[in-house]
Amino acid sequence: MKTLDQLELNGKKVIIRVDFNVPLNEDQHVTDSTRIIAAKPTIDAVLEAGGSCILMSHLGRPKGITPELSLKHIVPTVAEILGREVKFAADVIGEDAQAKAASLQAGEILLLENLRFHAEETAGDTDFAAALAALADVYINDAFGTAHRAHASTTIIAQNFPANKAVGKLLQQEIEAIDKVLKTGEKPVLAILGGSKVSSKITIIENILDKVDHLIIGGGMAYTFVKAQGGQVGNSICEDDYLDYTLELLEKAKAKNVQIHLPVDVLATTDFSNDTERKVININEIPSGWEGLDAGPKSLENFKKVVLEAKTILWNGPLGVFEFSNFAKGTIDLGTFIDESTANGAFSLVGGGDSVAAVKQFGFADKVSYVSTGGGAMLESLEGKTLPGIAALNE
Ligand code: AMP
């Protein structure tokens, strides 16, 4: 796979798949520009190398042309973040896009309209991909968030650039971060999996058992493991259909010399809400009518030791219902331990949905080594799948 520094970009038109799928408020103003900021290094590098940029992205899930989801709404934010003028094409592969791409000069930036205004995008249509490709000389994929989709702009388009395609800087960083955890990480390697359900993380657990030395299982997932081993979990979230399976996983972990760490105590309550009665209970003895919503103090003490000894850390999923302030302590403390371990030299990657939300909300984003920008793409990478968007750059 080529990096963009390995391509001749001087005087070239470079079409870049970015992930500008940003949240907008009711007035169509961008409320979180993280993804635009994340694409800046690639865009700057292309312009500095003497090229011009044709940026393409999807926004939301429109069915056909949907004015509220036009990418024109984000043009001022993109221009401000890049510190340059950004031209806008009112269509994707139509006359306006073609004319504006044809007259684009070195150093200029053109943003195309929302790719998903065309059903051909998600269908991975070859003709649509070829029409996008015809706008440019070089293709760069920098959209990790959609790299697990075989869409026209993320994967199929690459066929039109047998030699002139490369991975963007953000996508490259994401690939390196995952490799650091799953392939080249310094031992001991620790994965922390939390969140609500075992069933949604099975493929990840199966895949990482071959790569890690320690696995912390927290959050709602833990209760299925505890009940399977004979514990009483009261009304805690538990997947009875997976009891046998979790026992198998524990056996597999043993055979592979992976140490599993489960919570030993929990902060429990009688009702799934923030302001009810709370008490710390041994995780094996949760009475009926009570449910565990956060890790307890002894569990956190145990987890702290493991996190501080780890040299490579992957964190996916909260340790409790962090959306309720009274049950956020476990997740916040875990963030603090990872922060401390990172400051001591460990590499830490946070990825996938709610743990990313948690590190942002509690201010840990700058204290871990890397926060992934892709939810589904990150989870599929952890499952050991080759993402089509990345494979297409290798072909
Ligand atoms: P996931 O999407 O599977 O990563 O799960 C994230 C969700 O798990 C968050 O919304 C948490 O509130 C929830 N969660 C974490 N711990 C628990 C628990 N002990 N009981 C119920 N839900 C939990």
Characterization of this structure:
By secondary structure, this protein is of the alpha/beta class. It has two domains: 4-169, Phosphoglycerate kinase, N-terminal domain (Rossmann fold, 3-Layer(aba) Sandwich), CATH 3.40.50.1260; 176-382, Rossmann fold. Helices cover 34% and strands 16% of the residues. The chain is built from 14 helices and 17 strands. The strands form four sheets. The chain has a six-stranded parallel sheet, sandwiched between helices. Strand 11 (265-269) and strand 12 form a beta hairpin. It is elongated and about 70 Å long. Bound molecules: adenosine monophosphate (AMP).
Overall outline: elongated
Care to count the β-strands? 17
Ligands, ions, cofactors = adenosine monophosphate
Looking at CATH, the homologous superfamily of the largest domain is Phosphoglycerate kinase, N-terminal domain
Helix content range:
25-40%
Largest sheet: 6 strands, parallel
Would you tell me which CATH topology of the largest domain applies? Rossmann fold
Provide the spatial order of strands within the biggest beta sheet: 3-4-2-1-5-6
Strand content: 15-25%
Terminal CA distance:
8 Å
Please give the CATH class of the largest domain.
Alpha Beta
CATH architecture of the largest domain: 3-Layer(aba) Sandwich
Mean pLDDT, nearest integer?
A: 96
The low-pLDDT segments are none
- Count of the domains: 2
- What class would the helix/strand composition place it in? alpha/beta
Rg, Å, rounded:
23 Å
The helix tally amounts to: 14
Summarize the structure.
This protein has 395 residues and is α/β, with parallel strands linked by helices. It has helices at residues 34-48, 75-82, 95-102, 119-123, 126-133, 169-182, 202-208, 222-228, 243-255, 297-309, 329-343, 354-361, 376-382, 388-394, and strands spanning 13-17, 52-56, 87-88, 109-111, 138-141, 165-167, 189-193, 214-217, 232-233, 259-261, 265-269, 278-282, 285-286, 291-295, 312-316, 347-350, 370-371.
